[in-house]
Amino acid sequence: MKSASTLSSAFLQSAGQALPEPLLTLRANRASALTGLLLPTRKTENWKYSAKHLKLTDDMASSLPLNASAGAEADIQGYTVVLVNGVVRPEASNYPALKGLSIQRFSDLDGDDAELAADLLGKSISDQPAKHGSINLTSLNAARFEDGLLIQLQPGTVLDQPLFVIHHTSASHSGSAFPCILVAAGSNSQLTLVEDYVSSGESPVMVNTATEFSLGDGANITSVRLNTEGQNVQHMGTTGVRQQRNSRFESHSVGFGGTLRRHDLHVRLEGEGGECKLNGVVVTQGTQHYDNHTTIEHVAAHCNSEESYRNIAADKSHAIFNGRIHIHQDAQKSNANMSNKNLLLTNGAEINTKPELEIYADDVKCAHGATIGQLDNESIFYLVSRGLSRRDAKVLLTMAFINELVAQIPVELVRNTANTGLNQFFDQAFQEV
């Protein structure tokens, strides 16, 4: 019998970036814990549909150049932080000057802030109960990050406009990048964080990301995530969230497929009165692959969660949604709703959905639902009879399917970018009608 493959030791070699001692210790400990880690197979529950797309060859283990060009980024009139191959570039960034807001590179942290970062990193992810047969490859980020970004908001601090974090991957040759962001939001603070993942170059590369949010009492955080990386980029990302009393977290994710795209979103509602809202849109075409896994942990009582994800798959592409809501025993008066709607544009496309409810409290309101279907021929016929071409009729119906979620994105620039990408998707998906 063939033995299971393990993660190559080349992926656990020490990174070169100089970091404060607490972060170096954390990184070394995480690398040691991953030694001999079994790689996922089709029998691994949370990698059932994606394992065959994962390519962790030794030539991808080396870090991508830290001095690569930042490239020509979008013209953003506002606050920006630029990361190139996972390393912060202050000279290409435009930090906000606001009392109560601190934005620092990991490599610049003093002893106290480094201790804070080392204490918080991974907690919103590693504290999630491990399901039987699951493998968490996103923990590789903590063993390999070269640098990172610590964003701290003092109590009551409110940022007046979104903060854009541009993650640029320069794929001039094979390798990997490990961007890491930590947001510590004090009580009653507010922030909108936009993460934009882009790439240049054609070499096969891996991007393994971790973004973690720690929300104090009454904090209000909006996270917007846009992935438009090239087809050659394997992307495995994790977003972890810990919420305290009366805090609110809102997530909007828009993803375009590639060789392998995966995003794990973990939210822990740890304080009474916490609320979260998760929206996601994914489109795939050709042989692209996109895998979304979400987990909402209702740990405390009187918390609300609302989740809505929609997938569109064309050609021979594949989209996956696995959403889990876990109501803990003490989480009475919880209110949780999950919806996943999926649209297949061709017979060769594939979508798998698995909504899960795990409830251990008896006084809760929970609901979940999932649908998979194709465009309705009667609706197409109706629009054609009113003068539209078949192509325009299909585009109109498909856009209507996801526009409800796209329209909710609170940042106009992201909405426009998403709509541009969607129009390009429609042009290719419906070019032969």
Summarize the structure in words.
This protein has 433 residues and is an alpha/beta fold. It has one domain. The protein contains 7 helices and 20 strands. α5 (377-385) packs across α6. The longest helix is centred in the last third of the chain and has 18 residues, at 412-429.
Put simply, the count of helices is 7
The separation of the N and C termini measures 49 Å
Strand order of the largest sheet: 2-1-5-8-10-12-14-16-18-20
| Sheet of most strands | 10 strands, mixed
The amount of beta strand, in percent, is: 35-45%
Domain SUF system FeS cluster assembly SufBD core: 172-401
Protein name: Fe-S cluster assembly protein SufD
Organism: Marinobacter psychrophilus
GO biological process, one term: iron-sulfur cluster assembly
Name the descriptors.
single chain; 433 residues; alpha/beta; 10-stranded mixed beta sheet; 20 strands; SUF_FeS_clus_asmbl_SufD
Short description:
With 433 residues, the chain is α/β, with parallel strands linked by helices. It has one domain (9-376).
Topology:
Blueprint: H1 21-33, E1 79-84, E2 87-94, E3 101-105, H2 111-120, H3 123-126, H4 140-144, E4 149-153, E5 163-170, E6 175-177, E7 180-185, E8 190-200, E9 205-215, E10 220-227, E11 233-243, E12 248-256, E13 260-269, E14 275-284, E15 289-298, E16 304-313, E17 318-327, E18 335-344, E19 350-359, E20 365-374, H5 377-385, H6 390-406, H7 412-429
Parallel strand pairs: 1-5, 4-7, 5-8, 6-9, 7-9, 8-10, 9-11, 10-12, 11-13, 12-14, 13-15, 14-16, 15-17, 16-18, 17-19, 18-20
Antiparallel strand pairs: 1-2, 3-4
Helix pairs in contact: 1-2, 5-6
